[in-house]
Amino acid sequence: MGNWIINHGLSAFIVVVWMGINIFLFVYYYMLYDLGPQFEYTRELLGAALPWARAPAAVLNFNCMLILLPVCRNLLSLLRGSFMCCERTMRKQLDKNLTFHKLVAYMIALMTAVHTIAHLLNVERYSNSLAGLYGPLAGNLSMLGDSSELNTTYLNPIRSTSTTPTLFVFTTIAGLTGVVITLALILIITSSMEVIRRSFFEVFWYTHHLFIIFFAGLVFHGAGRIVRSQQVTDPPHNNSFCEDQPENWGKIPECPIPQFAGGFPQTWMWVIGPMIIYLCERILRFIRYMQPVSYRKIVIRPSRVLELQLVKAGFKMEVGQYVFLNCPAISQLEWHPFTMTSAPEEDFFSVHIRLAGDWTEKLIKMVENLPEGAQGPSISVDGPLGTASEDVFKYEVSMLVGAGIGVTPFASILKSIWYKFKDSNPKLQTKRIYFYWLCRETHAFEWFADLLQVLEKEMEERGMKDFLTYKLYLTGWDQSHADHAMVHFDKDTDIITGLKQKTLYGRPNWDKEFEEVRKDNPSSEVGTFLCGPQALAKDLDKKCVKYSDVDPRRTKFYFNKENF
Amino acid sequence: GKIEWAMWANEQALAAGLIYLTGGIVGVAGQFRGWQFAAFGIAAGVFVCLLEYPRSKRSKGTSVERTGQYCFTVCVKAFGPLTSNYYVRALLHAALCVPGGFMLATVLGCVCLGIASLIYLSAAIHGEHWEPILHRKELSKRIGESIKKPPQNPPPRPPPELRRKKADHLETAAYDNPMTVAVSE
């Protein structure tokens, strides 16, 4: 239990607080509209559907305010940098920004459903009230119109019996905006389903921009002020006395005609802040987009991996960060994330681009057709944006697990180690690094094996064999691999990678690995970093919890996940 | 990558079916005016959900099934071209959505289904069609059989250069020889 608190406590706390606020808002506004005396006559017309519509509306205000914040990635990056105290836990929290964004989105969807259904009932009830189906009180209240000679203000927004609910919805601001933004929300949700997002990112990304319509409509949704409350009149209208005799209103002194007014629209007050923040975020991205970027070197690596070494004025990065690249020649609007493979100590930054889809294919093709030494296609860079790997030097012991293409951020880390070593950089708090590289096949990662070879040599020269322990796992081995390994089993270096450290076959036995790390480092804080698939993350997360000790003098494992 | 429109149309149509159904339930339960359209909405919503639940097999890449979609796949497959052709589906959804427009509770379902119909039309124009995702049960049987069969070939041996002991490199030889070896060649 204690281990769970160490690794998940803060996230759970934030979710509990968020849920608590949601519940509080829902219950508070439900009570307000269900019991508030100023809504007594409104409830006469609408019944229980009134509070059921207004309570989710309040929750929606709160969540629409929150939803824009987790996706301001530049803002979040700044925040990550400024959290000097409670470093480790706060930084981990910001990793889960996308998870939080989705959670808030689900709440918005749920509340929209409740809100819409309640309003469907409301519109029907307004219509029926006007038609006199709910008795004389409701009927008379409905007949009050906006008239200055008769000194009346309306309560029922439906003014004519020929107005059908559908017509009413499409001729009022609230109705029209409501339908439009709900439609936008539905399209956003269906295109954000994991299947669509993982396979066709552009559909997801472009459709998601319907959020602009969503927020525009949301801000104007309440402008019509059609939910009315009773105003205090002089002399006051005594509801309990007057409700049985609507025909006498205006004729006897105790019952002047009741006056109604709509509530001041409040949604804009909730969302205007985050909208401005998000606008700043987009402006910042645009400014970064406009900065000129030049190519220092372009290398085509084996297996059609493209290495781009780029230079941009004022660009400062940290290990394991990523950038978004945009190439107007390929697509004006597409930005694709790539982890940087260079170390901060170098005077350029590099990315290794693998063939993974349309955009990368076009880029590789363009570059292949370039003449020797020419500059590449014009490119824009947004970033650097930080993720978990920045913390890797803050832990005394680090376990780095890179699966497949997830090995890329660790290229940056390992290079940085090499530089820090050469410079004997005191910032390096790390005493030991365990690196696990899992891949189905080494195809397309030969460049990484080269890097490891160089490091291996350096480590040996300095007699620091213990500093970096790495294990390579080839998970996609087959019979021919096994044969080949058996034949060459005597050789000094590995037959696949050419490294001194032999390649292991199959998946790692994590229990054994964690045991080993715990045994070798009995009283350290170990940071575990993964760049890889979800299933592995869950596995490692559980192992971190399992092998952590609540006793602060013993080994503790912290799990960080880089999200792509 | 290249979008398979049908995948998005499928998500949209499934959502539309649920919304149509929900709107219909509200309309009938609340005894709204025009509740007959709501009743139709319920039937149409359920039908659309059943039709759209089984995902199609992708033409490129791995297909992810929905939980328990196998029985639905079999049913939908049984209708042949009526369900595998996306022009037919687009037309069907367009027709089903029209009655929803006559009543407020089902209007949203109507519009969502209409949009799904349009996306299906786009899918059809791009030449896509619905393919059932069927399990490949035969593969597992094959593996089981091979375990029972004895090996046909001898175990792999190191290549001849390593097998033969050279008198001056006795340590690197692949096996021990009970007899002494004379220098050859």
From TrEMBL, chain A:
<feature type="transmembrane region" description="Helical">
    <location>
        <begin position="203"/>
        <end position="223"/>
    </location>
</feature>
<feature type="transmembrane region" description="Helical">
    <location>
        <begin position="12"/>
        <end position="32"/>
    </location>
</feature>
<feature type="transmembrane region" description="Helical">
    <location>
        <begin position="52"/>
        <end position="79"/>
    </location>
</feature>
<dbReference type="Pfam" id="PF08022">
    <property type="entry name" value="FAD_binding_8"/>
</dbReference>
<dbReference type="InterPro" id="IPR013121">
    <property type="entry name" value="Fe_red_NAD-bd_6"/>
</dbReference>
<keyword id="KW-0812">Transmembrane</keyword>
<feature type="transmembrane region" description="Helical">
    <location>
        <begin position="167"/>
        <end position="191"/>
    </location>
</feature>
<keyword id="KW-0349">Heme</keyword>
<dbReference type="InterPro" id="IPR039261">
    <property type="entry name" value="FNR_nucleotide-bd"/>
</dbReference>
<dbReference type="GO" id="GO:0042554">
    <property type="term" value="P:superoxide anion generation"/>
</dbReference>
<dbReference type="Pfam" id="PF08030">
    <property type="entry name" value="NAD_binding_6"/>
</dbReference>
<keyword id="KW-1133">Transmembrane helix</keyword>
<dbReference type="InterPro" id="IPR050369">
    <property type="entry name" value="RBOH/FRE"/>
</dbReference>
<dbReference type="InterPro" id="IPR013112">
    <property type="entry name" value="FAD-bd_8"/>
</dbReference>
<dbReference type="InterPro" id="IPR017938">
    <property type="entry name" value="Riboflavin_synthase-like_b-brl"/>
</dbReference>
<feature type="domain" description="FAD-binding FR-type">
    <location>
        <begin position="285"/>
        <end position="391"/>
    </location>
</feature>
<feature type="transmembrane region" description="Helical">
    <location>
        <begin position="100"/>
        <end position="121"/>
    </location>
</feature>
<dbReference type="GO" id="GO:0006952">
    <property type="term" value="P:defense response"/>
</dbReference>
<dbReference type="InterPro" id="IPR000778">
    <property type="entry name" value="Cyt_b245_heavy_chain"/>
</dbReference>
<dbReference type="GO" id="GO:0016175">
    <property type="term" value="F:superoxide-generating NAD(P)H oxidase activity"/>
</dbReference>
<dbReference type="InterPro" id="IPR017927">
    <property type="entry name" value="FAD-bd_FR_type"/>
</dbReference>
<dbReference type="GO" id="GO:0043020">
    <property type="term" value="C:NADPH oxidase complex"/>
</dbReference>
Automatic annotation (TrEMBL), chain B:
<comment type="subunit">
    <text>Component of the phagocyte NADPH oxidase core complex/cytochrome b558 complex, composed of CYBB (heavy chain (beta)) and CYBA (light chain (alpha)). Component of the phagocyte NADPH oxidase complex composed of an obligatory core heterodimer formed by the membrane proteins CYBA and CYBB and the cytosolic regulatory subunits NCF1/p47-phox, NCF2/p67-phox, NCF4/p40-phox and the small GTPase RAC1 or RAC2. Interacts with NCF1 (via SH3 domain). Interacts with SH3PXD2A. Interacts with DUOX1, DUOX2 and TPO. Interacts with NOX4; this interaction mediates superoxide generation.</text>
</comment>
<dbReference type="GO" id="GO:0005886">
    <property type="term" value="C:plasma membrane"/>
</dbReference>
<feature type="region of interest" description="Disordered">
    <location>
        <begin position="144"/>
        <end position="169"/>
    </location>
</feature>
<feature type="transmembrane region" description="Helical">
    <location>
        <begin position="91"/>
        <end position="121"/>
    </location>
</feature>
<keyword id="KW-0812">Transmembrane</keyword>
<feature type="transmembrane region" description="Helical">
    <location>
        <begin position="35"/>
        <end position="53"/>
    </location>
</feature>
<dbReference type="GO" id="GO:0020037">
    <property type="term" value="F:heme binding"/>
</dbReference>
<dbReference type="Pfam" id="PF05038">
    <property type="entry name" value="Cytochrom_B558a"/>
</dbReference>
<feature type="transmembrane region" description="Helical">
    <location>
        <begin position="12"/>
        <end position="29"/>
    </location>
</feature>
<comment type="similarity">
    <text>Belongs to the p22phox family.</text>
</comment>
<keyword id="KW-1003">Cell membrane</keyword>
<keyword id="KW-1133">Transmembrane helix</keyword>
<dbReference type="InterPro" id="IPR007732">
    <property type="entry name" value="Cyt_b558_asu"/>
</dbReference>
<protein>
    <recommendedName>
        <fullName>Cytochrome b-245 light chain</fullName>
    </recommendedName>
</protein>
<keyword id="KW-0472">Membrane</keyword>
